Amino acid sequence: MKIAVLGSGAMGSVFGGLLAEHGQDVVLIDTWKEHINAINKNGLHLEGIGGDRFINVKGVSPADEIKDHVDLVIVFVKSPFTESAVKGASHIIGENTMIMTLQNGLGNAEKIAEITGSSRIIVGITNNGATLIEPGRVRHAGLGETVISPFDGKIFQRIKEIAQIFTEAGLPMRVSDEVTVLVWDKLMVNVGINALTAVLKVPNGYLVEHTSSEKLLEYAVREAEKICKAKGIQLKHDPVQHCKDVARATAANYSSMYQDVAKKRITEIDYINGAVVNEGKKLGIPTPVNETLVLLIRAIEEGY
Ligand code: NAD
Fold first, then answer.
1. Which of 28, 47, 62, 130 has the largest CB neighbor count within 10 A?
2. In this predicted structure, what is the pLDDT of residue 64?
3. 13 and 153 belong to one structural domain
4. Are 69 and 214 contained in the same domain?
5. What is the tens place of the pLDDT at every residue in 169-183?
6. Are 130 and 104 in contact (CB under 8 A)?
7. Within this chain, do residues 98 and 147 fall inside the same structural domain, yes or no?
8. Could you tell me the distance, in angstroms and rounded to a whole number, from the CA of residue 39 to the centre of ligand 1?
9. Is the separation of the CB atoms in 30 and 122 below 8 Å?
10. Which reaction(s) does its UniProt entry say it catalyses (predicted)?
């Protein structure tokens, strides 16, 4: 299968690298030239789960170097760049190209659908974790299940075939029709952990080791839970308990928003706590804690 990874940072490199290692025809696309040059010169240096090795995979920057349509585009840019990345790669998206988003937060599939139409979009969540160590070198830090679903319409054979290809490549993937619940379940964790760790400049575990930060986590997640209830979404877990469990299980980790702020990069705040605020406005549900977290992160970004 001809696969293009659009945004080949931490996650894109892990997914693209494993698929290439297992015989798929993969191209890694990224605007970060240093990273792409390192991959083309030495191979992708992948470490962590699966061991330390170099994978032979082609990188391009920008997408213009690819001339033909691909079978599958995996979008792995951070959410603020979804629109520009997909528009910039529109020449590789033909009428049979599937487009998959496993990005965090809400609204990415909708943004892609505005450009490509909704019928070929696959939306999902992944419980894999990855860290970019240096240009050309990425750590596969956590192995977990990926769950996908068609964004619009019924599950069809091609989606099942795609899931099989990923599973065979060492990325266990399941097709489900309840992905909305899983997206919100994951959103709850990001709502409780990401912005708070970025504002407080602390690892995830700190939030549950201190009374005041634990309360803030709880208030932010309970606001989001009210929105789920109003939308009729039945979460799989108690969201506060689940968020605290994740913070404990990943106590030493620094969230992606913490890392974005530390590197003065635009964060995914609008797609996480900001999405909760937007949904709250539509439903008439106040979300003052999430609104404050959004403003705090924006205030940090404005100072870059
Ligand atoms: P990342 O910042 O490491 O990688 C994103 C890459 O996109 C960067 O290398 C950047 O240069 C590139 N990019 C930006 N604009 C581009 C464009 N127009 N065209 C091509 N490339 C472009 O991010 P990540 O950690 O891999 O996260 C990607 C997504 O996956 C996010 O939504 C994140 O929340 C989600 N996610 C991450 C993890 C994780 O452990 N890292 C886990 C689950 C989900």
1. 28
2. 76
3. yes
4. no
5. 999 999 998 888 989
6. no
7. yes
8. 16
9. no
10. (R)-pantoate + NADP(+) = 2-dehydropantoate + NADPH + H(+)
Count the domains in the chain: 2
Amino acid 232: pLDDT: 96
| Residue at which a domain ends, from 152, 177, 202 | 177
Low-confidence residues of the chain: pLDDT under 50 = none
- pLDDT value at position 301? 98
Whether the CB of 9 sits within 6 Å of ligand 1? yes
pLDDT the model gives residue 63: 72
Q: How far is the CA of 44 from the centre of ligand 1 (A)?
A: 16
Sign of dihedral through CA atoms 96, 64, 8, 269?
negative
Instruction: Assess whether 41 and 166 both reside in one domain.
Output: yes
3-state secondary structure of 266: coil
Is any atom of ligand 1 closer than 6 Å to the C-beta of 48? Answer: no
> Strand pairing partners for 122?
100, 150
Q: State whether the beta carbon of 90 lies less than 6 angstroms from ligand 1.
A: no
Catalytic residue among 186, 226, 263, 281: 186
Query: How many of the other CB atoms lie within 10 Å of CB of 44?
Result: 28
Complex ipTM over 0.90: yes
Q: Same domain, yes or no, for 269 and 168?
A: no
Please tell me the distance from the alpha carbon of residue 16 to that of residue 169, in angstroms, as a whole number.
10
Q: Are residues 65 and 147 in the same domain?
A: yes
Whether 90 and 234 map to the same domain: the answer is no
Choose which residue among 5, 29, 30, 173 to substitute to test ligand 1 binding: the one with the highest number of ligand atoms within 8 A of its C-beta.
Answer: 30
Q: Is 149 in the pocket of ligand 1 (CB under 6 A)?
A: no
Q: Is the CB of 30 under 6 A from ligand 1?
A: yes
Determine the Cα–Cα distance for residues 198 and 129; give it in Å rounded to an integer: 18
Under 8 Å between Cβ of 28 and 85? no
The boundaries of the domain holding residue 140 are 2-177
Decide which of 148, 177, 206 is a domain's last residue: 177
Asked if residue 173 and residue 130 are part of one domain, the reply reads: yes
pLDDT of residue 78: 97
